[in-house]
């Protein structure tokens, strides 16, 4: 997969945003009830970008979907808006965030789990997976792709966003290229978009097709 045609995030933009990422890390574990308000004030669009990408490529009306790094449930809300009949399960490392997600009513099951380890869900049990805000600096890198892919059926899709700073620093492109070379996935879509509208921060929005 090549991204030579996609513009890189400038260091001038990424440095202020790195400070915001650190602030999110504090909120994520200490003040989860404040998270939605903060990201909303910054024009956070990642859940909608990911859900739109899934809807563009998944034809099932009632899919089984795994929300990876579900946080407070913003991505599940976006998925249900596009797939009202979806069944969504989720996981997150933060049990405080899971308590917030439980309040939404968007999930069948929520479990604490580390995205870099084997997940406590059935292998090949989902038509699709989604993730917004997980693959970023201060959270996880490419090592957290395979555990999520393991939960998806062959032929299923994984729609996710990756913060541009993480894409470059954590070498996501190389990791995805290797998964393609190994015959595990194909790349259905790859675009760049603004996921924090108020500060112009960009990310990659990607749809992976699991082949085996």
Brief summary of the model shown:
With 212 residues, the protein is of the alpha/beta class. The chain has helices at 11-30, 35-41, 46-57, 74-82, 95-102, 145-150, 164-169, 172-181, and strands at residues 64-68, 87-92, 109-112, 126-135, 152-163, 185-196, 201-210.
- Major sheet: arrangement of strands: 3-2-1-4-5-7-6
Annotated CATH homologous superfamily: Vaccinia Virus protein VP39
Shape by Cα distribution = globular
Q: What percent of residues adopt helix (DSSP H or I)? A: 25-40%
Would you identify the CATH architecture? 3-Layer(aba) Sandwich
Radius of gyration: 16 Å
Low-confidence stretches: 2-14
* SSE-based structural type: alpha/beta
CATH topology: Rossmann fold
The total domain count is 1
Query: Main sheet, how many strands, which sense, barrel?
Result: 7 strands, mixed
Distance between the termini: 19 Å
List the helices and strands in order. Answer: HHHEHEHEEHEHHEE
Number of strands: 7
CATH class placement? Alpha Beta
Percentage of residues in strands: 25-35%
Given the structure, what is the number of helices? 8
Summarize model confidence as the mean pLDDT.
85
